[in-house]
Amino acid sequence: MRLEHSYRTERFGAVRIHELQRVIELDSGAGAGDSGSDAIPQDALRAIERELVIVIPCMNETRRVIEGVLSGIPHDCLIVLVSNSDRYPVDRYEIEAQTVEQFCRLAGRPAITVHQRDPGLAAAMKAAGMPELIDDDGLVRRGKGEAMLIGMALAALTGRRYVGYVDADNYVPGAVHEYCKVYAAGLHLADSPYAMVRISWHSKPKVRDGRLFFSRRGRSSEITNAFLNRLVAEYSGFGTDVIATGNAGEHALSLALGMRLRLAGGFAVEPFHYVDLFEQFGGVLESAHPEVMASSVPVLQVETRNPHFHENKGEDHVRGMRTQALNVVYHSPVALPAVRSAIVDFLTGQGALSASAEPPRERIYPPVGSLAFDLLFDALPEAETFREIGAGALAARPA
Amino acid sequence: MRLEHSYRTERFGAVRIHELQRVIELDSGAGAGDSGSDAIPQDALRAIERELVIVIPCMNETRRVIEGVLSGIPHDCLIVLVSNSDRYPVDRYEIEAQTVEQFCRLAGRPAITVHQRDPGLAAAMKAAGMPELIDDDGLVRRGKGEAMLIGMALAALTGRRYVGYVDADNYVPGAVHEYCKVYAAGLHLADSPYAMVRISWHSKPKVRDGRLFFSRRGRSSEITNAFLNRLVAEYSGFGTDVIATGNAGEHALSLALGMRLRLAGGFAVEPFHYVDLFEQFGGVLESAHPEVMASSVPVLQVETRNPHFHENKGEDHVRGMRTQALNVVYHSPVALPAVRSAIVDFLTGQGALSASAEPPRERIYPPVGSLAFDLLFDALPEAETFREIGAGALAARPA
User: Fold this and answer.
1) Which of A70, A166, A177 is the best mutation test for B, with the most CBs of B within 10 A?
2) How far out from the chain centre does Cα A139 lie?
3) Is B364 helix (H, G, I), strand (E, B) or coil?
4) What is the distance in angstroms between the Cα of A249 and the nearest Cα belonging to chain B?
5) How many CB atoms lie within 10 A of CB B37?
6) How far is A170 from chain B (nearest CA, A)?
C-alpha cells in the first residue's frame, strides 16, 4: 500500500494529529517510497496483520453482507464479531455465528464471536470489574461504544498487539480490505507504541433523483470535526481543520494505547477518542501515564480510495450521532468556554436542546486496561453465545 | 487470494472450461489451500503481476473515476490506457494522459497511453499489417474490441507474458484490485501456457424505486451464456450451464494464447473469445496450432466478491451487446443448425431481426500475432498521442 506522505502534524501535548493522507495505491508491491509518498511493503503489512484483531460490531445484517465483509479481512488478522442482533423471533446471532464458522472453515482461520446481550458476557464483564457496562436488565448495554469495548477486551485476551474496527454493514468487500490494509500501513508508519489510525472514506454514494451521487462529506462528521478543530484552535490560537475523522467508525489502534483509553457509550465512542486523547495526553490536565507523555501519541488519518457504500440509516441516526458527539466535547474539562457556548448555540439553533438547558452527559467507561483479564478469561466460556472458532484465537490464560 | 476449488470442467476439444469459482478471501496471506480451496500466496501473485499488462479501454470517464481505477491496479502490473474519448471541444484524452502521468509519478511506475483515433496509430497498425482495423476516415475503428486489440498489440511490445482488461468506468477501486488479483491467481492456477481467466461479478447495484438493489444477473449475459452453453451442449448431448462469463469485459489471458486468437470488433469481442476458442481449439475444425492442441486451453471463471458498480449505460447499450453476441455465435462454423435457428427465433421474437432475414456478420480481425511487431515498434512513436510514461514500459526493439 502506498500513502501520500503527511507533511504537517498538529500537536496537542503528546498527541500528534497528522494531516489527512490519501491512499495512492492499494498494492504498492515492492515499490519504494520517496519524498512524496510512503510505500509500505507487503511483508511489513503482514507483520502488523499477524498482530491485528479486527472487531466487527454487527446488528441485523444479512448473511450475504457479512460474508462479503469477512472475505475482505486479510487472512492473518483475527476476526472478532460482536453481535447486537435480534434473537427473536429468528435467532439472527445463530445465523451470523454460522456464517463466520463456515467462512473460517473454508479459509482455514480462527475467529471469536459473542452476543453483546448474553447474560454470561455481562457476568464475565462484571466479574472482571466493569459493572458500569451493565444495565438494569443485568445485561451489557446496547450501543456501538459498548460493542467496541467488548471487542477490545476480547482483543486483549488474544495476546495480539493491535485492534481495528470494521462495520458489518458494508456492501464493498474491497473497501473492508482497504480499511484493514490502511490500519496495517498506518500502524507501521506511526512509529510509536501508542498509535491510532482513523479512516476518512473517499465518498459515500447516495441515491438522489433515481441516480447515484457520490457525496464527499458525511452529514454528521462535518459538524463533529468543526467543533473538535475549534477545541484545538482555542489552545493554539490558530484556526485549524486538521481533524477530518471525528466520527471515524473505522479506526485501529495499538492495544497499548487502547488499554489506557476510556471509551464512551453509543455513538459518542468515536469523537470521544479525540476528547480522551486530549484529556489524558494533551498536557492540559495531569496525565496518569507519564510513559505515554514521554513518548508520543500519533493519530494518522487516511482517506481511502473506495466509496463507503452502506445502508442508509436515516436522518434520525445522523442527528443522534452528531448530538452525542457534541455532548462529549461540551462536557470535557479541556473544552474552553468559547467552544462550550458555541456548542450550546448550535444545539439550541438545531432544536436539539431547549433554551438554557445543558447538553446531557454521555456515558464514559473506565479504561479496558483496568479489567481483571484473568477473571474475564475464566468467566467468558460460561457465556452461552461465546464461540471460539478454530484453534489459537485466545492466548493462554493471562497472568 | 483464496478461491473456491473448481471440481468440474467441461471439455470442448483442447478447451477446458472450468466451472465458476468464487473468491473466498481477497488476501489469503500465507494461508494454505486444501481440498475445498486454492490459496495463492502473495509471492506467486506477484510473480504473475510482474508479467501482467493491464489494459484500460477508456471513453469519456472523469478524472476522479480514472484515478480510482489506477489506484486499484497492483504496482507490479504495467498500465496501458487506450482512449476513445472526445478530443473536442475539450481534449479529454489530454486530461486522461495527465491523470495517468501524475499517478505514475506519485507511484513511481511506468505506463503507456494512446488514443484510438490517432492517425499515427492507424498508420502504425496498417504498416504492421492490419489494414482491416482502419475505417474510411483512415483511422482505427471505434469500438471496444478494437481498443482491446490495440491494447494487446501494445502488451506484446512490452515483452510481458500476460494481458488483462479492466474497464475505466468502475466506481470501486477495490473491485479493480480484486479483478487484477483474480487474474494473477487464475493464471497461476491454470497451469498451461494458453490460459484465460474470465470474471463474473458478484452483483450489480441498480437504483430501483429510490433505493439500491443488488442484481445478480446481467441483462445481456444471461442470454449470451444461454446460447454459448447451447452451442456446447449440441456437441456433448448434455445440457450445461458451465459458461457464466460470455460477456466478461473483465478478463485476462496469456499472450501465447492472445497472439493466436482472433478478436471481434465492438462488443462482440467478449463472447467471440469463446467462439474462437471453439473454432480454433475445439477439435471440430482443423487447428492451425497443433502445439496448442497438444497442450490445453483452460478457461477459468471466477466470481468476484465486490459488486460491479459502474455507470448505467442504458437499455440500448445492453440490447446492442446482446445482439452482437448472438451474431457471432450464429455465424460460427461450429454452431450447429439447432443453435442457429434458435438464435434467429430469439432475435426475431425480440424484434431485433426482421422475418426471414439473417443476423449480420460482426467484424473479425486476424490474430494480433500476425502483426509485424518490428514495424509497429518503429512506427508507434510517430503517433502524436503515444506516451511512454516512466522508463521500461516497452521492451527493446522486437526481433
Assistant:
1) A177
2) 22
3) strand
4) 19
5) 21
6) 11
Along the 399 residues of chain B, how does pLDDT read in single tens digits?
999 999 899 999 999 999 999 999 999 988 777 878 999 999 999 999 999 999 999 999 999 999 999 999 999 999 999 999 999 999 999 999 999 999 999 999 999 999 999 999 999 999 999 999 999 999 999 999 999 999 999 999 999 999 999 999 999 999 999 999 999 999 999 999 999 999 998 777 777 776 677 776 666 788 999 999 999 999 999 999 999 999 888 999 999 999 999 999 999 999 999 999 999 999 999 999 999 999 999 999 999 999 887 777 777 777 778 889 999 999 999 999 999 999 999 999 988 888 888 999 999 999 999 999 999 999 999 999 999 998 778 876 665
Q: How far is CA B305 from CA B164, B172, B201, B217, in A?
A: 18, 12, 7, 14
Spatial distance between the Cα atoms of A240 and A124, rounded to a whole number of angstroms: 43
CB contact under 8 A, A27 and B74: yes
Distance from CA of A207 to the nearest CA of B (A): 6
Give me A65's grid cell: 453482507
Torsion angle defined by CA atoms of residues B53, B56, B57 and B61, in that order, rounded to the nearest 10 degrees? -170
Q: Specify whether the CB–CB gap between B303 and B218 falls below 8 A.
A: no
CB B281 within 8 A of CB B287: yes
In DSSP terms, B57 is beta-bridged to B82
Rg of the Cα atoms in chain B: 20
How far, in Å, CA of A259 to CA of A212, rounded? 41
Which chain A residue has the Cα nearest residue B23?
A71
C-alpha cell of residue A152 = 477490545
Helix (H, G, I), strand (E, B) or coil at B241: coil
Query: What would the grid cell of residue B123 be?
Result: 498508420
Count of helix runs (H) and strand runs (E) in chain A? 13, 15
> 3-class SS at A100?
helix
Domains contained in chain B, CATH given: 2-205+245-313+366-389 (3.90.550.10)
Q: What angle do CA A22, A23, A29 make, to 5 degrees?
A: 150
* Cα separations in angstroms, A320 against A199, A269, A356, A362, B96: 21, 13, 20, 12, 42
Strand partners, B205: B214
Determine the length of chain B. Answer: 399
Question: How does strand A204-208 pair with strand A211-215?
Answer: antiparallel
Contact (CB<8Å) A36/B74: no
Q: Which of A61, A97, A59, A92 is nearest to A79 (CA)?
A: A97
Phi, psi for residue B9 in degrees, rounded to 5: -130, 150
Which of A1, A3, A5, A26 to mutate: most B Cβ within 10 Å? A26
Q: Give the three cell numbers for residue B227.
A: 446460447
